[in-house]
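Illustration 12: GPN-loop GTPase 3.
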Amino acid sequence: MRYAVLVTGPAGAGKSTFSTAFATHLRMARRTAHIVNLDPAATGDAFEYEPAIDIRELVTLEDVMSEMGMGPNGGLVYCFEYLLQNMDWLEDELGGYDEDYLIIDCPGQIELYTHHPFLPILARNLQRMGIRTCAAYLIDSQFMEDRYKFFSGVLSAMSAMVNLEIPWINIMSKMDLVSPSPSSEGASEPRNGRRTRKDISRYLDPDPLLLATARDGRVENGRFHELNRALVQLIEDHPLVSFLPLDLTSTESLEVVVSHIDFTMQYGEDEEPKEPNDLDGGDFPEVE
Ligand SMILES: Nc1nc2c(ncn2[C@@H]2O[C@H](COP(=O)(O)OP(=O)(O)OP(=O)(O)O)[C@@H](O)[C@H]2O)c(=O)[nH]1
Ligand SMILES: [Mg+2]
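Figure caption equivalent — predicted structure in token form:
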């Protein structure tokens, strides 16, 4: 059995850093892990490890921009359409890695997650190749600085999620930047840019009151209040929106995240009897 984790999320969320730390962690545990770079705009030595598979061998953003006269955003979308049309390239590359864990570092362009079918198509292709796949969606802990920014982050995570038919976990990255301040324990708002444990947990497991009330605890007025309440209800009703904190300065924190990913993919539970045939594959003769 092969496993793949799609590491996704907005620009600068810490995807590449997490991918590297994740690979190192698996290797230390004597598990085989390979990084797959799917960011056609990644610069030369962005990785501590040479990626085992690299989209830049198929297409680079730089070439697309200079040869097609495209800007960076259109260029990235073009690169992905090109990849989707050349799935056999990826399949050939992946063919060499059996029984392994593939950590797929995705680019940070939000369009790819919200309204482009790139991720669902990629996930379906990986599954068709017999690779057990899950996704991790990272949001930078700085999103917790502002509740509106935070909820817009939650909504973009949800909009990416609804399109995907694979198991999914949300990760709040860079938690080392918001370690709770012991001196302000009990207060509900940050002091000196630090946050209390209670405050942090309200974001990790989104608390509806966070959005429905203003900083000083007043209920906000008018139309936006109604809109916010509707969003709160949506988030409350949606069981998948909670975040696992990730602090890369703590091995324990990384271990917890890795074990969630293992659990999500049922890592190591591949000894079960296999399906006699791939039921939704095209292996059956046409029934008249
Ligand atoms: N403090 C802190 N900084 C981090 C952490 N992870 C990443 N960073 C920093 O955040 C910036 C972006 O990290 P990347 O890993 O390149 O993020 P990315 O999501 O791959 O970015 P794109 O590929 O451009 O979308 C870099 O300056 C990192 O050093 C973390 O856990 N803690
Ligand atoms: Mg990156």
